[in-house]
Each structure stands twice: as structure tokens, then as C-alpha cells.
Amino acid sequence: MGGGTEVSDGTDQAPALDIRGLRVVVGAGRAEGEEAEAVRGVDLTLRRGEVLGLVGESGAGKTLTALAALGLTPPGARLRGSVRLLGTELVGLPARELARLRGDRIAMVFQDPSAAFTPVHRIGDQIGEALRVHERPRPSRRAARARAITLLSDTGVPEPERVALSFPHQLSGGLRRRAMIAMAVANRPDVIVADEPTSSLDVTVQARVLAALGDARETTGAALLLVSHDLGVVAQTADRVAVMYAGRIVETAPARELFARPRMPYTAGLLSAAPRVDAAHALSRVPGTQPAPGKAGTGCAFAPRCPVSRPECRVTDPALAAVTQPERGPGRPAARAAERARAAAGASAEHLAACLYPGAGEGAGGGGLFPVGPPPAARPRATAGAAPALRVTGLAATHRTRRGGRLRAVRHVDLTVAAGETVALVGESGAGKSTTLDRIIALTAPEAGRIEVLGRDTAKLTRAEAHRLRGRVQIVLQDPATTLDPRMKIGAILAEPLQAQRVPRAEIAARTPELLAEVELGGEAADRYPHEFSGGQQQRIALARALAVRPELLLLDEPVSALDVSVQAGVLDLLRRLTSAPDGPACLVVSHDLTVVRQIADRVVVMHGGRTVESGPTDTLLTRPRHPYTRTLLWSVPRPDPGARRPLAAPLAPLSGCDTTTGCGFRAQCGAYRELPSEQKRLCEHEAPGPNGPTGASCHFPYPDDATPPPGRPAWRGRPGAH
Amino acid sequence: MAGRVLRRLARSLLLLLASALVSYAVATAALSPRAYFEDRTPRPPTVAVDHELAALGLDDRTPVAERFTHWAWRAAHGDLGRTLDGESVNAEFGRRIGVSARLLLVGTVVGTGLGVLAGVWAAVRKDRVPDRAMTLLSFLILSLPTFVLALLLKDGALCFNNSVGHTVIRYTGESTPGATGGLLSRLGDRAVHLTLPTATVALGLVAAYSRYQRAATLDVLAAGHLLTAQAKGLTPGRALLRHGLRVSLVPLTAFLSFGFLTLFTGSVFAEQIFGWPGMGSWFLEAAQRGDVNSVVAVTLFAAVTVLLAGLLSDLLLFALDPRVRG
Fold first, then answer.
1. Is the interface score ipTM higher than 0.85?
2. A 176-235 residues with CB below 8 A of B?
3. What is the topology classification, in CATH, of domain A390-618?
4. A40 close to A250: Cβ distance less than 8 angstroms
């Protein structure tokens, strides 16, 4: 469908990008021991017009590979091997000639646009510069800025004139990414390298950015190397996928093939560890961690973690080689048809894996290779009649802004967590989730509304009562690295909450190994420091600290969003186990990630613009949401399944001149509202919907109980069956 | 913007008043103008000394608070009092301010400019010979007291002149007395005279700024936006110039006001050693004689210039970094 996909992979045409034997050494120039090979011989071919997804977990060398595609290295890194762009060798090319190709024939969309734009120049000028550097005769500053505005509007940026005149810090993350894409396509390059173009974005914003990227690719016909850790994003966008582990490509195949039949155990583990939004399912766990750059020994780097490794695996480092296609079972006619279609189109369907025994663990399905966590059990429902662990009604909260005004971060929040229940509070950044959590943990009177924690109204607590209550409510924050004091041993970290509640010393000493065992860490961990643990282990420690005082209510703020997929699966399992235990705490989980929520929550409360807009049991709410916002949110989550591509819902641009001080607060972005007859519109305009309608949705005209997609343009126009 | 500057100026005035109060108090406590008058031979009668001190507003029998109020009232009306010789402090101030301003201005510009250039160069050549040489040299300079540096420069110039055979580098005073010739040759003469004192005050600045700038440039070299600039098609050098330099100058603005203090202290010694009749040498002479009014006048001058430097550094930050414009 993309302009370039028709271009055959003919012999007369060199591939868009051909990387052979790429090695990147980081820390060059420093002490001997600190040099490490972070990319260890990568072979990668990007055909013209194709979308190649490069996936892997942090530290796999994805970003270094992406930079090397442009012949770039971060300071202190060295490049070896061969990178050919449209047949031109980039490694060893003089700086001036390299500069001529970069930004013109190959362009990059960087991961972190807050760091990738120069803070002191206007966006329009930075985009214009890409034109002024390459185009001859050189366009004037003015002409370049005018073209930048056009590029921005082509990328779907609202108010492109204003954005062009803005400085990077004045724009939101999503706008900066789209501006970055506008800059990358300025000279209609043949290759676009996008390094995590949507990481840390909200799903609806991610859908918009993917739409921008898809449009850009379609209009330029460029090939796209899409680097991402998000299997969903890759599954929805890529023609082919390459998996990277410890500085090497370990498997590469057409997207459908790879997701359906991974042959390298690591790929299989990665795929079955990824949580899905459409079902709660058992997650497989890949024990151990990826070796740090330079720490991979002889043999296959994955062998130490591989459940089917044999002694040879630790000696011989397997090269990337074609795997034989196993006989397809009779139950897969669709796949066979796709295969035939591919063969007819002349595209090669090669599947390469760097494994001595590819598919060794097959038969039980990819997930069968690895230890699988407990399936989501039917959880004990809250006992009727018991006081809820947490009840928030009509909560409102404001923040003081720098200009002295007040920002209404939370307008109206209602939520209840029954004893023993796990409730997820979901919403996108700025929805007021964190402020809500903050007001609950403060245990003081809210500005408006009422908070009852474990049956106590926080407005009526004395200091002593608040202190006692604090021992029964605990919180775990997002980033474990910053919540553990680096100078305290784990034992001391775990003892602290107990000391605060004046627990006798002997009891504390007995509790510590118990706690560590509870979060699946060895007792010897107590004598070590936080930095000696990996991210996942650190989060387990933070969890153990929260559990130390046996809280009755546990608040979790984005508990796994800082973790890699294979590590996240383990922590999710642990959370599932802890919260479904008969005497487990009631839990309020704040998260932006619906796939995570699906795995651990009994009920979900959705927030938008400071209001709770819908609540209901997880299964119902995440399959048949009734509120238009929830529906858009759900439909913008990419599924890790290339066989079931569907357009991602990108939310609509807000209606201008829509006064949301009266009526429904979501009206301006609501797709359903726009399609209503005008007399019904009036209801939305004048009357705010009740906080909890009969359907659990705060909406005058909730969706019927079905699964129709929300209105709105599709983000990445899926290319069903295209390869 | 204008409002911000006005608020800033109002605050500066308060600071200025506080600085005047403190320097007056310290000067009266540390200096004894009475001793200056009594030490004359023949020793004048106490009544005469009292009379002279009272005329200068320095009579130590009236309380300090009263003397200060009196002085401040006059100062607010533009009269900084009289020197021990009965001359107008204002007149002396007027004669000397130009001399110091030239030295300070040229010193700041040269010191900051060279410091920034040296820092960028060292950062680009990190861990290679130029960087290491620069590191060594700047620590050497920073560890030398200014007057030692001035004397070393003077000796160096003398050696150079001797070896060449005639006086190339003139370093006494602001210009050669009785020099004739056109405007151009007189300007040249002044420039030559300016060399050593400027070097004295600027070298410390170059050494310090080059360190800061080196660190700031290294930060920028590792920043993502330099990679972006290169990915767009700029050569590494042009990327640094267009996208790195301005960003790296942002943290430097904070040092500008501190750096100016060092510069001012340096200029006191430089003026004294190279025989420039500026504020610095006036300060030393006045302090030796116990001339409270002159000392306070110079301190006031220092305070004003430091506050101005602070204001300037804020304006510079404002111009360089859109993020602080709020």
C-alpha cells in the first residue's frame, strides 16, 4: 500500500540499507577495561519501501544500531563493519560527504524529542534548517520557515504556525515527536530511521504519532527502520521484524511468521511475556537478565537464560541462518495462503535465527518453553457488607501554577476499593491520576469531597490517628531506582517502615527473610545495596518494603512501567499472587497501560481531564466500554498480533471554541457528540452527565453493549496481508 | 521584560544601600583618620585635629550611626564628601573612573572571550595534548596570586624588551607622557600600555572560564540535539557552532557576576603595580592613609559594578535561553 512497497527487490537496485558485520565499541578512549562491544556483528537489510521493526529490550544495542545506520556514533563510541545506504558505503566516508547524505537520503526520528531538539532555537527554524542545509539554491530563512509550516501541517500538527514559532520546551511530547517526523521527511529521504518514536507517550498520542509516521512514509515512499521495545507497535506496523539481544540480531522474519512461529527461544519468551489488552492470560517469565555490554561470554549470549540450551550452546556462538520451515498443520490454511501470496509476489519469505537448535522447545507453543506464572484465577470478590478499604467521593484538587493561578488537576473523582479488591485507576498523563493518589496518601482533608481510608474520614483524623493509619496504608512508586536509598542496605530499607511503627527489633529481624522470600528474593539480599540489583529486583524490594507492615491498603503508582517486558512479566505475576491471596491487601493501581491493568485488576476506573468517566469490572470494561473516551483509549492500544491488524483509533482534534465549563467535559474531543442530532447535542452542552450513569459511564449517550470501533480516523492504515 | 528589569533594579538599590552601610561601618572600624592627622610633624593640637575631622564628617566622637546618616544623606544628593586633603571625592572619582572602566571593560571582554574559546577548544580536543596543556596552564594561573602574576608579566616584558634592544612593551601608566603624533599613534601607544594590565586581570578569568566552558561544552557534545543536528546533515563542527555553543553558554552566565568580583580584585593590584591612576590604586592609597570617605566611595563603585554585572548576566541568560523567559 505504501508507495514504495511495489518496488521489487530487484538485483539492479541496492537495498535501501545494508548493514554487514556492524560492531560498535562504547567507552573508547577510557580505561582498558571500560571498553565494551555493545553491538557485536549485526547484519540487517532494509529493502526499499519496506517497514522493518527492530525489537529488543533495553541494552540490546538497538539505538546504537539505529545511529550507525546514519554513520553516527555517540561521543566515545567507535564503529566497525559496513553500512551501505543505497549502495554507498558510509563507514569511513569523509565527514562532509556523510553530512550530505544525512537528512537528505536518510533521516532519523530520535527517541527523546525533549533532548533531540536544540532548546534555544524555534521549531520552525530547526525544521527549516534541514531544508537549508541540503537544497540548492539554498532557500531563504523565510521560505524555509514557510515550508516548515507546511511540513508540520502534513504531519497532522494542529496550529502549525504557532508550533513553528514555538521553542521545544513549549510543546507537549506528542507534538515534539510529530515535529521531529516533519523534520525527518523534509527532504523526502529514501530511508527513515525511527528510534522508539512513541515510547513514553500515551496510547492515544502514540496512535496520532504512528499515523503521522505512516502518512510520512506513504507520501515519501521511504523505507522505515522502526526501533521499538513495544511488540504491539511493531506488530501493527512492520512488514518484517528483527529481534536483537545482547548486541546481535537473534532472529529475523516476516512479521506474521515471527509472531506466529518464533524459532529462537528468546523471541518466544519475549512474545509470551508481553501482556495483552484483550485477555488476562498467564505470562511466561524469562528468568535472569540480559548480559551488560561486553559481559557476554563465549557461546550464545542467551544460553544462560535458555530453558532448552545444551552444552554446545555455551561454546559455539550461532550465526544467523535460515531455519527450515516446519510442516504446517492443517489448522493453518490462512498462514499457508499468505505464504503462497508472498511467493507469488516474489518477496522472499526467509526466516533466519541465530540458534543451534531453532524451535527446540516447539510443540508446547512458544510459552511452553518458559516457566509460566499462575493463570489469572477467579479472585475472591469483596465480602459484602464489609467496609471498603478506600472510598473517594467528589474529590477535587488544585495545583498552584508558576504564574500564581490555580490549576484544577482533579475535578470530580469517585472511586471505591473494597477490602481485598484490586482496582486500577487508568488514564493518560494529565488526567489527574497521580494527584488523586497524592491526595489519598496525604491522609489530610481534601480541598473538596471526601476520602475514607479503611473506614476513616481523612478530614477528621488527629495527628496520632493519621500516624497509626499510615502503618496500614503503603505506597510503591514507579521508578524503584529512585525510591531506594542507595546508601542503605536492603535489610535496613525493609526494617524502616517497621521501626516507624515501633516494632520490636527481634520481630523485625525475623520479618526480613520472610519478606524477601515473599517477593522471591534470597535472604542474602538483606546484606546488599540497591545498585547490586536489576530493575525488576529493585521493584520487588520496593514492594517488600511496602508489605513489611502488612498493609490493608496498597497504593501502586505505575508499578511496572519502568521495566522491560521479560522482567515486567515476573513482577506482574508477583503482584497477581500477592493481591489475590486471601489475606492480601486491597490495592489501588495507577497506570496508563491497559495491558498491565488487564492482568492484575478486578475493576477499572477510567479518568479523563480530572474526572472519573467510567468504571466497571475489568473484563466488561476492557472489551465493551460504554464511554466514548474509554472506547478510543481501548482502540488505540496496538495488539501484538500482526495477523489481526486493525486501524488504531486516533482521538479527534478538540473542537475549537467549545466551552467545557458547562455540560460534559469530554464533549470537545468526543466523536459520538459530533454525530448526534442537534437537540441531543444540547443535553451534552448544558448538563454535565452524572458521575455514574446506569452503565457505569458518565455519559448521556453511552455506547451500546457491543464492540463497535469509535469514530475517528485510523492511525496506521493497516496493510492486511501486505508483505 | 521591562518590569522584570525594573524590579531587579529596585532590589539592586536596596542591596547598594546595605553594601554602603556595611562598608562604611567596616571602614570606620578599621581605619583611623585621627592617626593620620596626629602623625603629622609637628603634632597638631587635638582641638585642631577634632576640627579638621569634624569638617570631613569623620569626627570619631559623634556616633557612627549619626556620621553614616549624615554621609548617606549627602551621598544621596550626589556628594560623596571630601578626602583627607580636603579635595572633593567626586572630583577624584571622576578622574579615576575612566581609567578603571577601560581596564575592567577590556579585561572582561578579553577574559570571557578567550576563556570561552579556550574551553571549547579543550573540550573538542578532550584528553589530547591541547586539552592537557590547557588544564595544566589554567591551574598554574589559578594558583598564582594576582600580584605575583603581575610581577612575572612585568619581568617577562622587561626581559623581552632587553633582548629586542628597545622598549616594545611599555607598561608604566596609561600612556607615554608627552607622546606626540597623530590620533592613531596615540591610540596604539595606549593599546600597548593596556597589554600587561589587561593580561594580569584577564588571565585568571581565562583560566577559570575555560574550565567552566570546557565542562559545559562536554555536556553539550553528549546532548541529543547535537546528534539531531548531525543527522540533519550538519558537519560535526557546524553542529557544535550552531546548536551547541549557545546552549553551552547558558550555565556560564551565572559565573559572569562572580567572575567579575575576581576581576575587580585583580584590577586593584594591576593598577597599583603598573602605575595606573584608577580606582584600585586609589583604594590602596586611601586605605593606607585612613581616608574613610575615599575607601567607601571605591567600595560603592565596586558594589555598583558588581550589581551591574549581575544584571547583565541575567539579561544575557534571558537572551540566550528561551526556557527562562517563562
1. no
2. 183
3. Rossmann fold (3.40.50)
4. no
